[in-house]
Design goal:
220 residues, alpha+beta, five-stranded mixed barrel, three-stranded antiparallel β-sheet, 3 helices
């Protein structure tokens, strides 16, 4: 039996076991977003603030490894049941999730309020996972192999999840606010206009990750 077929056999059970942690994670992210205040002109450097707007690509986009969707951030996971047990013995419990998370710097377009750069290497998500289908089978197989699960491995079941952040989505995002010094205008222009305003940037890291969620539950 192929590894992907074996995974599919027990996917329903694995998925059921994984629903509660996913919901808990989304609730925690949502609470964090509500707790952080909206960005204002008086927000201070380093303060964790929230902005709401439309996602725009910045310098590059990414390709989500399971769905193949073009995005600016993704978190892809598989939970597997590893079972080197004798025939007829119950499988082992779910192993820790294998995960890939990647974020490209992106923009939040707030319309008349201006644009904010979002740049971090860690994030928590309150986004609905994609509905993965049989068309994603080869990418699922590749994702398993990337995390060390070969067709010869003792995998008896599993469940894939993926969330993506795509350009055009309207979201809320919070992070530590930084004011980057804008490039000075040419000297010949200084007598005619003021220097451009500082660029606003939200950052996140392992200790204080970005939080990204659906804007419909966020008050403006």
């Amino acid at each position: 039996m192929s590894i992907l077929l074996a995974v599919a056999v027990a996917a329903a059970a694995a998925s059921a076991l994984g629903i509660a942690p996913q919901l808990t994670e989304r609730r925690r992210a949502r609470r964090a977003l509500r707790r952080h205040p909206l960005l204002t002109a008086t927000s201070t450097e380093g303060e964790r603030v929230r902005v709401v707007g439309v996602v725009r690509a910045f310098e590059q986009t990414l390709v989500a490894p399971i769905s193949g969707r073009t995005c600016v951030a993704y978190r892809s996971r598989v939970s597997v049941t590893v079972s080197p047990r004798p025939h007829g013995a119950p499988p082992l419990a779910l192993s820790p999730k294998a995960e890939s998370l990647l974020i490209a710097p992106f923009l939040i377009d707030r319309g008349a309020e201006g644009t904010v750069i979002v740049d971090g290497d860690q994030a928590r998500f309150d986004l609905k996972p994609l509905e993965l289908t049989a068309a994603d089978a080869e990418r699922k197989r590749s994702f398993l192999a990337r995390h060390g699960y070969s067709s010869q491995g003792p995998v008896s079941g599993g469940s894939f999840t993926e969330v993506v952040l795509e350009p055009g989505m309207t979201i809320a995002v919070s992070g530590a606010m930084m004011r980057d010094v804008a490039l000075a205008p040419p000297a010949s222009d200084l007598a005619f206009r003021e220097a451009p305003p500082a660029t606003i940037r939200l950052t996140g890291n392992h200790e204080h990750p970005l939080v990204i969620g659906e804007s419909k539950v966020m008050p403006r």
